[in-house]
Amino acid sequence: MPDLPDSVWTRPPRTTRGDQPALSRAQIVRAAIELLDTEGAAGLSMRRLGTKLGSGTTSAYWYVTNKDELLELAVDEVLGEIYVPEPGDTGWRIGASILANGMRAALLRHPWVIGQLGARPTVGPNAMRMGDRTVALFTAAGFQGLQISYAGSLLHSHAIGAATTEAAMTAAARRAGSTLAGVAESVLPAIERTAGTYPHVERWLRENGVGGPDPDRLLDDAFTFGLDRLLDGLSHWLTHHPNPPHHPDPAQQPDPVQRPGAAPRPGREQRPDLDQGAA
User: Fold this and answer.
1) What span, in angstroms and rounded, lies between the C-alpha atoms of 37 and 107?
2) Are 123 and 10 in contact (CB under 8 A)?
3) For residues 49 and 34, is the Cβ–Cβ distance under 8 A?
4) How far apart are CA 276 and CA 214, in angstroms?
5) Which residue ranges hold the DNA-binding region (predicted)?
6) What are 140-166's pLDDT values in tens digits?
7) Taking 70 as the threshold, does the pLDDT of residue 256 lie above it?
């Protein structure tokens, strides 16, 4: 079995040597994120980071061994921007909506993160905090076991998928020196020329306006619509597939209904309504 990729979170702490660097890890990570936001992952290097910090690469290498470890720290820092409410603060649907919207917004602020997800273990403190609160949120909703992982994966997939498409569209428009609205307007003539070949598209365009709504608003509305339907589905599933009450302590497990006339189980309080049976 091949080895997993090295991770800053899984390797033993490095042995410190020499004097403490002038810059903290937080300062270095913030500078790396600034570079990543403007240049992308391909534009980040330890040398360029050292130039930006004005201290060479010495301070950075105190905390990480290479660019990949620096990217892990930066990804976890971005995940720290995603707020997940405590279960007691709000209902599970609102909490799940806040999580999904927060993830989409964070990925659109830092689109380079999208390409890093899944490349290495996401087990930094902010990722674990987000995961812990997500488990608590879905547990309070009534999900159990792997259902919690499946429900969380649905939210993540919707947010990551939406952000991936929107980030790509935005980057393409920027490279063309335009905006999403400008790109949409530029392709309208081609759509109008071919609409007659596709009657369903032609009718939809006629009923909804050839230009359609503002692209930014359309993307927001589409994400909200999809998220609401996803949450509707999870809510419907909970209603029609209720789980038994969760009792982590075996001593709290409910006593099974015994056969009429059977002796009570040792260590259990006798229940006259069940144990004495029907006459």
Assistant:
1) 11
2) yes
3) no
4) 71
5) 45-64
6) 999 999 999 999 999 999 999 999 999
7) no
What is the distance between the alpha carbons of residues 194 and 202, in angstroms, rounded to a whole number?
9
3-class secondary structure, 90: coil
> Would you say 37 and 31 are in contact if contact means Cβ atoms under 8 Å apart?
no
Q: Single out the residue of 30, 19, 248 nearest to residue 139, CA to CA.
A: 248
11's tokens: 């390797």
CA 105, CA 103: separation in Å to the nearest integer?
5
* pTM as predicted: 0.81
The pLDDT assigned to 176 comes to 93
The Cα–Cα gap between 215 and 208 comes to 14
* Residues found in the chain: 279
Q: Give me 16's structure tokens.
A: 């410190």
Residue range 14-33: average pLDDT?
A: 79
Q: Measured in Å, how far apart are the chain's first and last C-alpha atoms?
A: 65
For residue 4, CA distances in Å to 10, 66, 114, 131, 279 come to: 10, 16, 20, 21, 66
- The b/e string for 217-255 (b: 16+ C-beta within 10 A; e otherwise) is eebbeebeeebeebbeebeeebeeeeeeeeeeeeeeeee
pLDDT at 257 over 70: no
Q: What are phi and psi of 72, to 5 degrees?
A: -60, -45
Tell whether the model's pLDDT for residue 261 goes beyond 60: no
The 3-state DSSP class for residue 198 equals coil
